[in-house]
Specification:
The complex is a heterodimer. Chain A contains two helices and no strands. By secondary structure, chain A is an all-alpha fold. The chains are: A mainly alpha, B alpha+beta.
């Protein structure tokens, strides 16, 4: 169990690092807009990417070697 | 076809028709302005906007050539110096965007603007409605972006940080950081205190106990020193001002628990007999901070949104110099400068007319909505709009010292002397806190004689068990519930004391124009003569009025189809022009008939009448139509006033307008106490006099002229159409035009007061019950913490009842 004497200080170092990164993110304005991201994810314009029922996926390569 | 506009959801005027096919469906619009915006959106391929949005868009203001020219001024490098930073040809600026109603608006704007060639980045903050714009100066100009935003129906203007907003941002960032530290420390501390709670002496080595405690101490120190700093600072202030609030026991509990735990960690033997409370300290701080953060968010909300808009004075001015016309930033205007004010522009400074003749719309300053004639030597106030012709004025006061600025200074003073509302919670809390502190010290002394070792744990238990958590939640939770509820109805409560003030109001004062009435002229009646049909008459009138900036012209805007030609304005009389190769006159009766007498039957009523006539081939003017215009009462004004009167609240009207029109409105509403033609100073004095008679005054208004009186009254409510500075300085803002919401707010305030009282009774009752047990040393600290949380939950749930 003596390993705890090393692991716990290491975990403190990680926590300190996490706090530092968090502080950096706040200073950079990452948390200035707490509402926007929640909305913007809903506005994806993927209407044209959703396949129509009539558009059948092309499973086979088109056979255009019908030349006589 | 629906009878409301697809874009702005306003009612489509009768006889008006404008349609556009959107997503294979025909949609109708209320005016050509809305239609143009919808066309822009559809051409950009963003018709999805209409599916995404959750609220209707705002109806766009008129946008004419001179306003467009004004946007081009922003390309001037000298002017840009103030708000644009440029490196290597890449410029960056901050814009404030107005008229955003929901998240889809932001999506639309970001998509459209980022599609412009040369734009590197354009993002809008959802909370503050402020945008960062980065663009390449060689590929596009700032004005083109502003113009595009305008064409989509929004307003944009470069903004400079003011102190209040900067502080708000710093405050928000720091509190997020405080919360983060407290949160992380709480989680870490839990992890290390769990083995201490669960372990027994045999299962855990002494050295690990010491290690866990030391680690907890390290984790907890920043929480006390940094996260809990606001509480400590407030507690210190309480001691200095001898006004006790909940911050004092909160700080005492935090400090005592922390220092005792630290003492145990450093000096005593590591066994499980003595307790440490690091985890409780961190968790306690974390939850308190979280509560305060949500409170702060609501407080900041009213600072944002449209606050930078319709600023009273324009940012630029056109100055006449020997080299011709030069534009310069308004703050560089000097006394004696000759300013050129075109039709439709707002005067940037006070001055005296030196050349030209025109009319000025002074409604922002006086509430009078008919323009005032200005000739040579007349005084023109900064912030008033030129309605008719280009005019030259010699500056007599710089923008800083103009009349508008003076009114705003008066506002600061009035705010200073504003009667304070002492909150119920504050009074109760201050007594309660004193009581807790006294009993804790008596118990401490008592236990010192019986069992010196138990002194600390007993005192700590007392402080925790009586922790006024539930008491401190009693008011804010009830307020938040009511605020959320009223917000959904369209009333934004900006300041904390609003609800309390509503409960004790004895007198309510309304402004007339823009508050009880719509504040704009509307066509209330049309009579036609000599066989003309109404739509035809309206079309002709609208065609002529399209050339005028007079407020009367706005009333005709919905009927506008095509512009008339060769329109000439005769100042003070009317307009003349040709439409579909016929000549028409529109104006007062004498002008329309060219001083001939009328053969037709003219109706005489209250309001403004204008007449349309046609010039026949034999040079005779024949009357075609009579239009009656008036400022109409808001739909719900009457029921609102009646409601207040039924509650025994005295209703007054205080207006800058003429006695005649005020009396007319007062008569319709049954209001006896009226004052007309009041200056801002007189209005403030009127309120002061009422207050001297021990009346609690609430004021509802909208204009700049109402500003000082709004701040002087104990409770102020601004109308949604009010200028932004008015909204910013009011206690509450009515976002829609439903006056009945104000009644609803007063009723809710009453209910909230009841709920707050119940909450307090519960919180204090619970604490008083537990206090003797704690004094006797029967409550272990963990039980005290558990009970405290349960007691708080009861309060929260009780408050939630207010939402329905």
């Amino acid at each position: 169990m003596e390993i705890l004497f090393i692991l716990i200080p290491v975990s403190i170092a990680f926590v300190a690092l996490a706090i530092w990164i968090f502080g950096w993110a706040i200073k950079n304005g990452q948390y200035d807009d707490l509402e926007g991201p929640a909305h913007s994810i809903l506005f994806d314009d993927d209407a044209d990417m959703i396949p129509d029922r009539n558009d059948k996926p092309k499973t086979e390569p088109a056979k255009d070697s019908k030349k006589p | 076809m629906p009878d409301t506009c697809y874009h702005c959801d306003e009612v489509i005027p009768r006889g008006f028709s404008a349609v556009l096919t959107i997503s294979n469906k025909q949609q109708a619009f209320c005016c050509y302005g809305c239609l143009a915006i919808a066309e822009t959106i559809v051409t950009g391929g963003l018709e999805n906007f209409y599916q995404h949005r959750t609220k209707a868009s705002e109806k766009p203001d008129a946008f004419n050539q001179s306003q467009q020219d004004e946007l081009y001024l922003y390309d001037d490098k000298a002017l840009q110096e103030d708000f644009v930073s440029t490196t290597d040809g890449i410029s960056e600026t901050h814009l404030s965007i107005g008229s955003i109603t929901c998240a889809a608006c932001i999506w639309l704007l970001e998509r459209e603007i980022n599609n412009i060639e040369g734009i590197h980045r354009f993002t809008i903050n959802h909370t503050s409605h402020r945008a960062i714009l980065v663009w390449d100066d060689n590929e596009c100009s700032l004005s083109s972006v502003l113009l595009k935003i305008r064409k989509l129906g929004y307003k944009a203007r470069p903004y400079q940080d003011d102190l209040a907003k900067k502080q708000a941002q710093i405050e928000k960032r720091t509190s997020i950081f405080r919360i983060a530290i407290a949160g992380i420390a709480t989680m870490q501390n839990m992890m290390f205190s769990l083995p201490l709670y669960l372990g027994s002496d045999s299962s855990i080595d002494q050295e690990f106990i010491a290690l866990f405690r030391w680690v907890s101490l390290i984790m907890c120190t920043p929480v006390v020193l940094f996260s809990a700093y606001p509480f400590l600072k407030a507690a210190l202030r309480d001691i200095k001002t001898r006004h006790l609030t909940m911050d004092l026991p909160v700080s005492l509990a935090i400090l005592a628990a922390y220092s005792a735990s630290a003492f145990i960690t450093v000096f005593s033997d590591s066994n499980l007999e003595s307790d440490v409370y690091f985890d409780s300290v961190a968790m306690f701080t974390f939850f308190l901070l979280l509560g305060r953060f949500f409170e702060m968010q609501t407080r900041h909300k009213h600072l944002n949104s449209d606050a930078d808009f319709n600023q009273l004075l324009p940012a630029t001015a056109r100055v006449k110099t020997t080299d011709g016309e030069v534009s310069k930033p308004a703050h560089k205007i000097e006394i004696g400068d000759i300013l050129i004010i075109h039709q439709g522009e707002i005067s940037p400074a006070d001055g005296i007319v030196v050349e030209g003749q025109s009319r000025f719309d002074e409604s922002a300053l006086t509430g009078e909505f008919l323009p005032i004639i200005k000739t040579v030597d007349s005084v023109v106030n900064g912030g008033t709009a030129n309605v008719e012709n280009t005019i030259l004025i010699a500056t007599t006061a710089t923008p800083k010292h103009s009349r508008v600025a003076a009114i705003i200074r008066m506002l600061d003073q009035a705010q200073h002397e504003k009667p304070q509302t002492v909150q119920l919670a504050d009074i109760v809390a201050s007594y309660f806190v004193t009581f807790v502190l006294i009993s804790a010290s008596i118990a401490g002394v008592f236990w010192y004689f019986i069992d010196p070792e138990a002194v600390f744990s007993t005192v700590l238990s007392i402080l925790v068990v009586t922790c006024p958590c539930a008491l401190s939640l009693a008011t804010p939770t009830a307020m938040t519930s009511v605020n959320t509820f009223l917000r959904s109805k369209g009333l934004l409560m900006a300041k904390g004391h609003t609800l309390e003030a509503m409960n004790s109001t004895t007198d309510i004062i309304f402004d007339k124009t823009g508050t009880l009435t719509e504040g704009k002229l509307q066509l209330s009646n049309t009579n036609t003569f000599n066989g003309v049909n109404k739509p035809k008459a309206l079309t002709i009138a609208a065609a002529l009025e399209n050339h005028s900036r007079h407020p009367i012209a706005k009333a005709f805007k919905p009927y506008f189809k095509e512009s008339a030609n060769q329109v000439e304005t005769t100042l003070g009389y009317g307009l003349q022009g040709s439409f579909e190769s016929k000549s028409y006159r529109l104006g007062n009766l004498a002008f329309a008939l060219n001083n001939a007498t009328s053969k037709d039957k003219i109706i005489e009523t209250q309001g403004i009448h204008i007449f349309l006539s046609e010039l026949s081939e034999d040079k005779q003017y024949t009357l075609l139509a009579q239009f009656e215009l008036s400022d109409t009462l808001r739909e719900e004004s009457l029921s609102c006033v009646k409601n207040f009167q039924a509650q025994g609240i005295q209703v007054h009207i205080l207006s800058g307008d003429h006695l005649n029109s005020v009396q007319h409105i007062a008569h319709q509403l049954g209001i006896k106490h009226i004052k007309a033609a009041q200056s801002p100073e007189q209005k403030l004095n009127y309120v002061r006099k009422l207050q001297q008679d021990n009346k609690e005054v609430a004021m509802v208004g909208d204009g700049i002229n109402d500003l000082p009186v709004l701040s002087g009254a104990r409770l102020s409510i601004a109308m949604g159409g009010a200028s932004d500075i008015t909204k910013l300085n009011s206690d509450a803002v009515l976002l829609n035009s439903h006056m009945s919401v104000i009644n609803l707010a007063f009723q809710s305030a009453n209910r909230a007061r009841k709920i707050i009282k119940q909450n307090m009774a519960w919180a204090i009752g619970y604490n008083l019950l537990m206090l003797p047990l704690a004094v006797m040393g029967l409550v272990p600290p963990y039980f005290a913490a558990l009970g405290m949380s349960l007691s708080s939950l009861v309060v929260v749930f009780n408050s939630l009842r207010l939402k329905s």
